[in-house]
Amino acid sequence: QVQLVESGGGLVQTGGSLRLSCAASGRAFSSYSMGWFRQAPGKEREFVAASSWSGGSTYSARSVKGRFTISRDNAKNTVYLQMNSLKPEDTSVYYCAVTRVIPFTPVQAMAVSEYEFWGQGTQVTVSS
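RE: above sequence
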């Protein structure tokens, strides 16, 4: 079992930046691929970005490409989501999650159902 704790959310103005962190417990962190998802009120959870276990493969949703960057530090059991040029439509609760699915293709990375464990989420609010 893996426990995930997100942090770094908050209130920011349009055009601002935030960096989310997701700290994982468990020794096998480096064997998991990681994903970030978000969910706004009344909407389905949607894919944001993902990283393979090594960090060698990363994927991003079209809506955040060029603005958000996922990275990981396996020595610290932590994955990050650097969010720049934030927009009001980025306002959501952001969740990190882990998966052991192999191969870790874009289709698998984007699928909520492929992820085994989830964090509790952190709120990001972008004011206009």
